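Support request, please re-run this one:
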Amino acid sequence: MKFQFEPSGTRANALDRAMHVSLAQSLHYISQQCLGQIDFDAVSLNRLVENISVTRYGATLFGLYYQLVDAIDDDDHTQAGHLFDRLVSEQPVSSGLQVHAIEDEWTSGQAELYRRGMSTDPTVNFSFLQPPDEMAAQFKQKLVATLDRFEPVLPEMIAEIRGLLSEIVLAVGEADAEYVFDGGSSYQLWGALFLNPAFHDTEIQVMEVVAHEAAHTLLFGLTVEEALTENDDDELYASPLRVDPRPMEGIYHATFVSARMHWALSKLLASEVLTEKERDFALAAQSEDAANFFAGLSVVEEHGRLTPTGSGIMQAAKQYMTSVINRSTGVST
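Re-run finished. Output below.
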């Protein structure tokens, strides 16, 4: 099936359900293989598997699953049994998009799980620290206001965001760190998006970063069965969004994400909801997104060994960006 570049809430809901079903199937298989070797409550685990197939769970469940796989691979049966116990104690998430700081009381004990799940890049060490209470509260209000304000202009993108994400986690970095994250997500923490409230001062900046990070999550969901590229992780190339060389998978992500941010900003610019200052920001950011996309595309096309999935998704993004550029220059397509 041809990939539809534009956001889709229906597709997002389907991807979220597919991720849950895949997790349920994998947990069922793992539990069957572990019977008699690792001590765990098989009845409760089977009940969890049934619930996952029909109910939405948060990122913690996915993070625990990856830790369980690691413990089993390491033959650490004690840790695996402990993780089975934690898994069966997980509860479905409440409806709606939840926003909380990384060490909020109701996520006590989950902060290290979040940090581990977000620390999958061996080349960069990011910190994910609890933001000051006032900063977190103000950013949460701004985030809610942003989604409410722009939903009439970006209905499918907001629906996609709500379909892909169950929670937004707020965290800050160390002030003197060489690299400080402003937003992030991880395939090991499906459904969670991490934002740094020390950045993104305005509502349009918040909308841009949410569109950015949700696009990464979309790609995670689209590649459950097949990766985007076949390049090895130790093959590093120049990236449009990072100063450090990146694996092809990361460059692919950055390239696609640039097109998605361009799409969102184009919709906002075509509306009448932006202030003059916001329009200036959007125009500059849109131009930068276009430059980043084509810079990344040149690296992907020259060095990337794309899978059929990766090729189809990138072709759709290229078609969108090319059509936009052609329209702006008066070139017919």
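The chain has a mean pLDDT of 92. The CA atoms of residues 31 and 42 lie 7 Å apart.
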